[in-house]
Design brief:
By secondary structure, the chain is an alpha/beta fold. It has helices at 22-33, 55-59, 71-82, 123-126, 139-153, 158-177, 195-209; strands at residues 10-16, 38-42, 87-93, 98-106, 111-115, 131-136, 186-189. The chain is built from seven helices and seven strands, in the order βαβααβββαβααβα. It has a five-stranded parallel β-sheet, covered by helices on one side. A two-stranded antiparallel sheet has the order 3-4. The longest helix is centred in the C-terminal third of the chain and has 20 residues, at 158-177. The protein is globular, with a radius of gyration of 17 Å.
Length: 210
């Protein structure tokens, strides 16, 4: 397909605290709209490359701080998708706290969703979005979900999760993530369990592909 025939994707940014339900919201969108029409990119893919750091040092990094992300690469790849060209998105290796050697090819679709804790943080990136969403969930619920997820999926111990939460996750949420709520066009309370809000969002997205 020539670039002249590619419609500019509708780009949606989905932000919110750790385990707020961002992934549930975006995966529901993919399920209901269809992967042929919607491409999902997770901000975790753009954690900076830490290959020059020993493992112990990587485990101590603050992954909820803006400095943990490669903003230039993020902006470059999302901008490329908006021109109708595909990109090779990095794949993150959570147990090793570093990028893997793999990449995931993402081709432009009618809708592109960019999801992550700081999706609405960077002004230049934020200006690319056609719709900005913040998923708002109580801190105690998010903590319980994070404990369950990191033990089950990322090989973490409860002790290490709680230590990280108190030293970096919670302070960074209050300082950097929560304030980005003011940039949202839509705030979804209770994340992916808010069926009414999801119905409205899906109806809006479906109108773009119908």
């Amino acid at each position: 397909m020539s670039r002249e025939n590619v419609t500019r994707p509708f780009l949606i940014g989905v932000a919110g605290g750790t385990c707020s339900g961002k992934t549930t919201v975006t995966e529901r969108l993919v399920e209901l709209v269809g992967s042929d029409h919607l491409a999902l990119i997770k901000q975790d893919a753009y954690y900076v490359d830490r290959s020059d750091q020993p493992f112990d040092e990587r485990t101590q990094a603050n992954y909820d701080h803006p400095d943990a992300f490669d903003w230039d690469l993020t902006f470059e790849q999302l901008s490329t998708l908006l021109t109708g060209r595909g990109v090779d998105v990095p794949v993150y290796d959570y147990p090793n706290h570093n990028r893997s050697k793999d990449v995931l090819r993402i081709e432009p679709t009618r809708i592109v969703v960019f999801e992550g804790i700081l999706a609405l943080y960077d002004e230049k990136l934020r200006d690319l979005f056609d719709l900005r969403i913040f998923v708002d969930t109580d801190a105690d619920v998010r903590l319980i979900r994070r404990l369950e997820r990191d033990v089950r999926d990322r090989g973490r111990t409860p002790e290490s999760i709680m230590r990280q939460y108190m030293t970096t996750v919670r302070p960074s949420h209050l300082q950097f993530i929560e304030p980005t709520k003011r940039h949202a066009d839509v705030i979804i309370p209770e994340g992916g369990h808010n069926d009414r809000a999801l119905d409205v969002l899906v109806a809006r997205v479906n109108s773009l592909v119908s």
